[in-house]
Hints:
Elements: E1 6-10, E2 24-31, E3 37-46, E4 53-55, E5 58-71, E6 74-87, E7 98-107, E8 112-120, E9 126-133, E10 146-148, E11 151-153, E12 163-164, E13 167-169, E14 176-178, E15 184-191, E16 200-209, E17 212-222, E18 228-235, E19 242-251, E20 258-268, H1 281-288, H2 294-297, H3 305-318, H4 329-344, H5 355-363, E21 368-373, E22 384-390, E23 396-401, E24 410-415, H6 426-430
Amino acid sequence: MKQFLTILLILSCSMLFSDQLAVAVDLNRFLDNSNNTIFDFNYQLPYNLLQFEKTDSGFVAGLKVEYRLIKDEETISEGDFTNKLIFPNQEMTRSGKLFRDKISVTLPSSVYAMHISFTDIHSPNSSSWFKELIILKRDSFLSDLEFSSNIVPDTTEYLDKFHRNDQLFFINCDHVYTKGEIDSLYLYYELGNVRSPVGKLFEKVNILKDDDTVKVVISELNCRGSKIPQQKKIDISSLAEGYHKIIIEARDPISNVINKTEDYFSIKKKSVSNYRLFVDLEDEIALLKYFLPSSKTKIWKDLSHEGKLKFIDRFWEVNDSDTSTKTNEFYQLIKERIQYCNEHFTHFNDGWDTDRGRIYIKNGKPDDILLGNTGLDTKYAQKKYEIWKYRIHNNLTYLFLDFQTSQNYKLIYSDNDPKESSSSQLKGYLGEEFDMSLLE
């Protein structure tokens, strides 16, 4: 039997918390030229579900994939590989964008099952997937359906495994589409074994919601051969939110044989948020905590996704300095300050997420900056400091110390800012000879 068994592992070319790792898997079947069944196991997960570690090469994560092909409860083939993801900065590590990959197996019969496990190599998070593998009939002329919302022309070999008809066809494993963001979905499937004299099939696409037909597309296809790729664009802009069943029927007019395949997709409501500065919502609330007291933000963890978006919108709307204009001036101001911080204060963290970044975002550019070095009589090696003074609109003073001589300045002194505090070891850090009048 092994001589009929072909296993093709297709590894990703891209370099890229709960214990349950939310990996979406989508299985689709196609016939090869010998009418054996190809099983494509597409899988995806957002980058921000993986734990990244900072290295000299950048921010690195790894998704270990282990597979077992099972027959009669015995493993007849197994293997593993690790998808390695590397990014130069933290922005993509916090992104909800999807990492995708694929495993393909070709089998002659339906006595097999596949077990796949996924493990985040930098955390205990993992998940597994199991499925009995039912082959397509060898004389079938209709494959399973692949779904995508993003196809672009591509003839390179870089992502060859995702090519369909010389296009980059990224599989949407969860079949979920957001209303208003996606107007059309794309289907890929294959016809085969069309041997009638006219090489003709009649095709009907039915879309149902709650068992009621909401869309029908009928086509006449002229085709002949063992493998005829089909790609179809389906307009879903007028469909209601919720679960939809899609059924494709192909009928040979000579034999009157009908092949049918069905699948599903879901349309969800668009989350409306007018104000987003970061990919990750947790970064949004971290920024808002610069301005809000803990009594206002303690409810965050109990909010739904929609509730969190409304919380963010409410903050910016309340702080809008001029509601008579279409532009939220406060939002634009903070956005510009974040950009400045990321350009000037970025160290291990993004600039907005450092001590100097926090103070700059809250108060803007200091009216005066004093640069210097600590004295020689400190408990620690001599270090650089910065004193920021705000005097025109308020009376604030901050002192930052470069503890590790790495430009990652830490706040050790604050005056007149109730949300900031001074270090109890201030004198030890600065030394007895430090001129405290500099802070006046």
